[in-house]
């Protein structure tokens, strides 16, 4: 196994015979969807921003700043939709093609995506329900209860995504290489998502993954 990893490292980020660093782009099998080394960092940053905006809404509710709540909610939904779109177009598509021959991992990915659909629907329903309603002392309690429910689901989701789903993504290059998947060439003029070997790419980490829990 060690020799495999060493050749893997050399292929994907080691120093070549001329002493220069060699890199390759890894595409999901049968696609031109590239592995993006910066994607998980970007998605985690989105999560922090979503939590920040959500907490801003809760503070505005506590301070009874009724006029500010809906614009902040609008920012939250905007950020949420952009984040979900990024996950669908870059993360899920890559994982879908990369693990289509691995039933258990593929099932886990499908489950994550289905749950995200439900959460997205809940967020949109919540926003749709309240965006045309004037908030005030008479209705802030039911609004707050629904806001808290959204927050609880969101925090759980962020935790399981970062601990499980993103870990699968980080492990994908290692697994694909072990399965003999080939890489593409790097175009130095593009900001290509270059794969760099790292300990988070150890495919063994997949064994510790658990199914997400949102049904309870
Ligand atoms: Fe996310």
Notes on the structure:
With 216 residues, this protein is mainly α. The protein is elongated and about 65 Å long. The N terminus and C terminus are likely disordered. It has five helices and no strands. It has a single domain, classed as Four Helix Bundle (Hemerythrin (Met), subunit A). The structure holds fe (ii) ion.
Compact overview of the structure:
This protein is an all-alpha fold and 216 residues long. 63% of the residues lie in helices and 0% in strands.
SSE topology sketch:
Layout: H1 2-13, H2 39-62, H3 66-98, H4 103-130, H5 140-178
Helix pairs in contact: 2-3, 2-5, 3-4, 3-5, 4-5
Residues 43, 47, 83, 87, 161 line the site of fe (ii) ion (FE2).
Instruction: Give me the CATH architecture, please.
Output: Up-down Bundle
Largest sheet: none
Identify the CATH class. Mainly Alpha
Task: Kindly report the CATH topology.
Answer: Four Helix Bundle (Hemerythrin (Met), subunit A)
Radius of gyration: 21 Å
Spatial shape: elongated
Chain-averaged pLDDT? 79
Q: Which parts are unreliable, with pLDDT below 50 for 5 consecutive residues or more?
A: 1-22, 185-216
Element order, helices and strands? HHHHH
Percent of sequence in beta strands: under 5%
Give the tally of structural domains.
1
Structural class: mainly alpha
Q: How many H/I helical runs?
A: 5
> How much helical structure, as a percent, in the residues?
55-70%
> What is the CA-CA span between the terminal residues?
40 Å
Attached small molecules? fe (ii) ion
- Tally of DSSP β-strands: 0
